[in-house]
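Example record

Each entry pairs one chain with its bound ligand, pyrroloquinoline quinone.
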Amino acid sequence: MTVLMSPDELEAALRAVGAARYHNRHPFHQLLHGGKLDKRQVQAWALNRYCYQAAIPIKDATLIARTDDSELRRIWRQRLVDHDGTQPGEGGIVRWLALAEGLGLDRDMVISERRALPATRFAVRAYVDFVRDRSLLEAVASSLTEMFSPTIISERVSGMLANYDFITRETLAYFNARLDQAPRDADFALDYVKRHARTPEQQQAAIAALTFKCDVLWAQLDALHHAYVSPGLIPPGAFGHDGIWS
Ligand SMILES: O=C(O)c1cc(C(=O)O)c2c(n1)C(=O)C(=O)c1cc(C(=O)O)[nH]c1-2
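Structure tokens for the complex follow.
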């Protein structure tokens, strides 16, 4: 039988999910950060990850649309501002596109998502659908991977700067803002989950939501590894298929 945990025990259980399943443990990230990939493989990472970036504000708008809690909406809408900016040329999506262009990718190709891996699109879509279809508590809990992102972002920026001559500090500027935004967002979401998960079932649902989200991130890296590292099977239509790297 599942027992009711204290809020701090719940937090510990959530952190244990991240320790076991967060995407910092994925071999593709270890290759990426360790300088073991060539430029095309890094380009593949950037253009696939664009799909995730582009979906994040859609899932945040979905969450906002679902709640009648005005305070939650007010706080959550900062995430839309962070990703979309307040005027053209601002925000995380634009900064991600600058990263992709800094790697030599064509901006319109990246935005079109037509060269992304099928599994990337499916994983990203699953996240948006989850936030639309599950309870609000699960929707908020699914964002909690951000508790773990500052560490991986620091590792990524220092590793990529040290190991690739085609990467500059400007290319990676996207991540600077995330180092402030992610802890702020995660602190709020964690507090929300600790206050609103009041039954054993709700607590287990929150843990399962975070597990699901780790799977969303992991699946995207599995797809990259399968296509671009080993066995190197690039799906039809995807970046690099038939030797076309554009
Ligand atoms: O670089 C990363 O490893 C990483 C991880 C995550 C995450 O853990 O979901 C996010 C981000 N970056 C990120 O940049 C971002 O905007 C973001 C939003 C969310 C979310 O679930 O709402 N996760 C993440």
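The CA atoms of residues 99 and 171 lie 5 Å apart.
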